[in-house]
Specification:
Blueprint lengths: L2 H21 L14 E8 L11 H7 L3 E7 L4 E7 L13 H18 L3 E7 L3 E8 L1 H14 L9 H11 L5 E6 L7 H8 L3 E8 L11 E5 L6 E5 L3 H24 L3 E6 L5 H8 L1
Parallel strand pairs: 3-4, 3-6, 6-7, 7-10
Antiparallel strand pairs: 1-2, 4-5, 8-9
């Protein structure tokens, strides 16, 4: 994907998702990127020059003196994008590959977060940390992030979400909003994820290709593990193979579902052949 193509996609998604949010999804979304704005601080006695609109009438009536509410501007939020660039991201049998889908979504999140004055950091990971962009602000920061995204390619390594989370825990000292973009075709991240979720807001975005759940029956074919590189002949028409493969996918799916439910983690699942506009409106409205 070229940088110009990515920017056009982000702008299109942003415009259409905002339109959908105002119409179909208004009032019923699970937005992760709502601005924080001004928050209530305390109540104090009225002083000359105070805005009368800030008067707390309940407290004023109780104490028979005029009191006003005070407010503070909420602190800038830090947003982290953890992007899985392992070998399985190359899979894509329809409109795009899984890694292209992750990049479209991640760039859109980054764009909207930066527009809301949040700082955005990115960790590209496989079974190790492939690249780190420390949190940055402003549109110049977004261009830097977008350029890094279009340059990233699927790596030969396997997936280790545990590695990415443990690394983030070491470098991130403030409560943050963390998006994990991955196919989650792995395990071992549950403990680190549970610990991290106690002090941060986590939102998982699981990408998948339908062929991963419904392999066509093609008889004997040579399959290659796209992450490990191993190859072997299998009979895809065999009932035993179909059952073994389905059971494996089911276990991985149940593990992921159990993780997000146990820790109260918000999530969406997106297919490579899916129009992502409506689902992303849930994040950005």
């Amino acid at each position: 994907m070229e940088l110009g193509e990515l920017i056009k996609t982000v702008q299109k998604i942003n415009l259409l998702s905002n339109s959908i949010s105002r119409q179909k999804l208004a009032g019923g979304n699970i937005s992760a990127l709502k601005g924080r704005g001004i928050v209530f601080d305390s109540v104090r006695k009225y002083e000359t020059g105070d805005d009368v609109r800030s008067i707390n009438w309940s407290v004023t009536a109780r104490f028979r003196e005029t009191y006003v509410n005070t407010f503070n501007e909420d602190k800038v939020r830090r947003v982290w994008l953890l992007i899985d660039v392992s070998g399985s991201g190359a899979i894509g049998t329809t409109r795009r590959s899984k890694i292209d889908l992750e990049i479209e979504i991640a760039a859109t999140i980054a764009y909207n977060a930066i527009r809301k004055n949040d700082s955005v950091g990115v960790i590209f990971f496989s079974d190790k940390i492939e690249r780190l962009i420390m949190p940055i602000k402003g549109m110049a920061g977004f261009w830097h992030i977008a350029k890094a995204m279009v340059e990233c390619k699927p790596c030969s390594g396997s997936t280790s979400i545990d590695c990415a989370l443990n690394f983030l825990m070491k470098i991130n000292c403030t409560s943050s909003l963390v998006f994990i973009l991955s196919d989650f075709l792995t395990t071992g991240y549950e403990r680190a994820g549970a610990i991290f979720a106690q002090q941060n807001d986590i939102f998982t975005i699981r990408v998948y290709d339908k062929i991963e759940y419904q392999l066509p029956k093609l008889g004997w074919v040579k399959l290659r593990d796209i992450e490990g590189g191993q190859q072997k002949w299998v009979n895809t028409s065999s009932e035993q193979f179909s059952k073994t493969y389905s059971d494996q996918q089911l276990r991985i799916g149940e593990n992921y579902t159990g993780f997000i439910r146990k820790n109260g983690i918000k999530n969406i699942e997106v297919s490579t052949d899916e129009d992502i506009i409506e689902k992303l409106s849930l994040l950005m409205s």
